[in-house]
Amino acid sequence: QVQLVESGGGLVQPGGSLRLSCAASGTIFRFTAWGWYRQAPEKQRETLATITVSGNTKYADSVKGRFTISRDNAKNTVYLQMDSLKPEDTAVYYCNLVPPGVWGQGAQVTVSS
């Protein structure tokens, strides 16, 4: 079973940036696609970005052009660079396999002035 540890969340002003990291345990990291997801209060969890084994990426319309997903197979880590943050980006952010398995604890991101 893969264990996931997200980090890098916090409070940021509108227009600011954050970089989330997700460290994954186990040996399957480089052989699978990964994604970033988020869940805002009283909303369903949504898929924000995915990255394939070969590095191809896809983004939800809500974050396209503002968020960038990347991966470092040597470190078993997937990243989410978030720029031009908006208050509506406030949520708990999760990384996971594609399709997702067991969820980690997530990272809280709050965008507020």
Describe what is shown at a glance.
With 113 residues, this protein is mainly beta. It is 0% helix and 47% strand. The strands form two sheets. A six-stranded mixed sheet has the order 2-10-9-4-5-6, with no helix packed on it. It has a four-stranded antiparallel sheet with strand order 1-3-8-7, with no helix packed on it.
Secondary structure blueprint with pairings:
Elements lengths: L3 E4 L2 E3 L5 E7 L9 E6 L6 E6 L5 E3 L7 E6 L4 E6 L8 E7 L9 E5 L2
Parallel strand pairs: 2-10
Antiparallel strand pairs: 1-3, 3-8, 4-5, 4-9, 5-6, 7-8, 9-10
Report on the structure:
The chain has about 110 residues and is an all-beta fold. It is built from no helices and 10 strands. The chain has strands at about 5, 10, 20-25, 35-40, 45-50, 55-60, 65-70, 75-80, 90-95, 105-110. A 6-stranded mixed beta sheet has the order 2-10-9-4-5-6, with no helix packed on it. A 4-stranded antiparallel beta sheet has the order 1-3-8-7, with no helix packed on it. The protein is globular.
How are the strands of the largest sheet arranged?
2-10-9-4-5-6
Shape category: globular
Largest sheet: 6 strands, mixed
- N-to-C SSE string, H for helix and E for strand: EEEEEEEEEE
Q: Indicate the low-confidence ranges by residue numbers.
A: none
From the helix content, strand content and strand pairing, which structural class follows?
mainly beta
DSSP E strands, number: 10
Q: If helices are DSSP runs of H or I spanning 4 or more residues, what is the number of helices?
A: 0
What percentage of residues falls in helices of 4 or more residues? under 10%
Average of pLDDT: 96
**Gyration radius from CA atoms, angstroms:** 13 Å
Strand content: over 45%
Distance between termini?
39 Å
